[in-house]
Amino acid sequence: MKINDPQSYLDSLRTLERKVYVLGERCGNTVDHPLVRPSANAVAETYEVGAEPEAASLLFTTSHLSGREISRFTHIHQSTDDLVDKILMQRLLGRRTATCFQRCVGMDGFNALYSVTHECDEAHGTPYHTRLKDYLEWVQDTNVVVEGAMTDVKGDRSLRPGDQPDPDMFLHVVDRTPEGIVVRGAKAHQTGALNSHEILVMPTTAMREGEEEFAVSFAVPADTRGITFVLGRQPSDTRKMEGGPLDVGNPGYGSQEALVIFDDVFVPSERVFMCGETDQSGKVVERFASFHRQSYGGCKVGVGDVLVGAAQLAADYQGASKASHVRDKITEMIHLNETLFCCGIACSAQGRATGAGNYEVEPLLANICKLNVTRFPFEIARLLQDIAGGLIVTMPSEKDFDNPETAALLEKYLKGVGSVPTLDRIKVLKFIENMTVGCGAAAYLTESIHGAGSPQAQRIMISRLANLDEKVELAKRISHIED
Ligand code: SF4
Ligand code: FE
Asked: What is the CATH number of domain 283-473?
């Protein structure tokens, strides 16, 4: 059965029989839990054609495997145009939801594995590429959400996976049978874990000889026996459980991360895409990282569009929009946001074909993109707070606006421009609070630093990919310096 629209997506999540914990309690139906639902709504938007004229051509494309129409979130990029369209799709969804819509990690995962499994089969005679293609065709035809799981919990960072006192700090194979493998370990910060039907596991780092048990990649249904999910907290998250929408700031949408624990989980052979090929593991990490560092040049830009709009609205509502410093600050926000977009487009336009025939992004530019994303959203948020004013964190609660004893007083004393209802001013300020210090900041700020790898990971790749020797030669030639 194919999931075709937001409602059938939400319904399909209700059929999963998973072991999930939310705020210390077992949660059977995550979709209807107020803490989780906004994040499911954000993923549901990936199934919604929507009103934007360009949306259908961005959200849907043609499978190179079956020739059938599929979601771009299940697509293997076939050209640089596909890579650019991916960015445009992510910007569009960021604009719709103002948060992380969670479905890109799986997409970036199987695009990375597509070329690596091909190369692995050539080097080792393994059957992984055909298996992956069979799996992908099933994913495309059912249109399920696949969560990409890379980051291990890692234990003592000074020790290699095989040297950890507890080997489960890195997900690893604990048993092999003729039918498949058994794995144990945990993946941290798993974006969209509770909103996914499938989990695609990849190694977290380049493995070395002797670390074969840790060089493992596979896919399993999210409700496979032995998997436990524990939802992560976000600042101000329980406002979603208070009933009213005002204090939430972005009541419709949210993001979500969870700790996903694999306690002796069986994986059938047909879903294993790497098992012991240590020389291939680093390539998965680097290619996945490049794809996901590209992604941030789309999704965070879409969120940035909404924040620029919020800055203008807040200024309009308090009568400050004509002040030259406010106009300057909004222009600076736009400049920063569009610079990120330029990076996302550039690494896509400069993409190239792999030996497997799919297209990957230009890795240096993808790393530049993401390193900028670790900084610019913070400056955008700072400018937004500057324009909005301190009221974003001193505002009374929704309940005070509902209480007849205080409502009229708040309506009078929190008024900005006369023609604007006080509550509209409060709504945009609550949204800015959410996005800069509340749970929205988890997706817009903290994820911008650590998602797809922390800044140091990008610096390492940039210094490795930049070809500094060639630049030195250029300087020598221009300066007439001879060795
Ligand atoms: Fe997609 Fe961006 Fe969320 Fe990553 S952070 S899953 S790219 S929306
Ligand atoms: Fe992310």
From this structure: 1.20.140.10
**Is 299 one of the catalytic residues?**
yes
Q: Do domains 6-279 and 283-473 have the same CATH topology?
A: no
Instruction: Specify the ligand 1 atom closest to the Cα of 451.
Output: 5
Residue 345 CA from chain centroid, whole number:
17
Q: Judge whether 296 counts as a catalytic residue.
A: yes
Condensed to tens digits (0 to 9), the pLDDT of residues 43-95 reads 999 999 999 999 999 999 999 999 999 999 999 999 999 999 999 999 999 99
331-367 pLDDT tens trace? 999 999 999 999 999 999 999 999 999 999 999 999 9
Phi then psi for 201, rounded to 5 degrees?
-95, 140
Query: In this structure, are residues 148 and 109 in contact, taking their beta carbons and an 8 Å threshold?
Result: yes
Q: Locate the domains of the chain by residue range.
A: 6-279, 283-473
CA of 105 to the centre of ligand 1 (A): 7
- Select from 67, 61, 68 the least CA-distant residue to 86: 61
Atom of ligand 1 nearest to the CA of 192: 6
- The yes-or-no answer on residue 46 being catalytic is no
Q: Is 191 a catalytic residue?
A: yes
**By alpha-carbon position, which residue is closest to atom 1 of ligand 1?**
104
Residue tagged active-site, from 97, 151, 191, 204: 191
Q: Is 360 an annotated catalytic residue?
A: no
pLDDT of residue 406: 98
C-beta separation of 298 from 91 below 8 A = yes
pLDDT in tens, 36-48: 999 999 999 999 9
Q: If the chain, 483 residues long, is cut into consecutive pieces of 10 residues, what is the mean pLDDT of each piece?
A: 95 97 97 97 97 97 98 98 98 98 98 98 98 98 98 98 96 98 98 98 97 98 98 97 96 97 98 98 98 98 98 98 98 98 98 98 98 98 98 97 98 97 98 98 96 96 97 98 90
User: Which of 365, 409, 408, 416 minimizes the C-alpha distance to 389?
Assistant: 416
Distance CA 90, CA 95 (A): 9
CA of residue 443 to ligand 2 center, whole Å: 8
Q: Which ligand is nearest to the CA of 107?
A: 1
Q: Which atom of ligand 1 is nearest to the CA of 255?
A: 3
The set of protein residues with a Cβ atom below 6 angstroms from ligand 1 is 90, 100-102, 104-105, 191, 295-296, 299, 447, 451
CATH for 6-279 is 2.40.110.10
Q: How far apart are CA 116 and CA 132, in angstroms?
A: 11
Nearest to 105 by CA among 340, 429, 443: 443
N- to C-terminal Cα separation, the chain: 68
- Which ligand 1 atom is the nearest neighbour of the CA of 299? 2
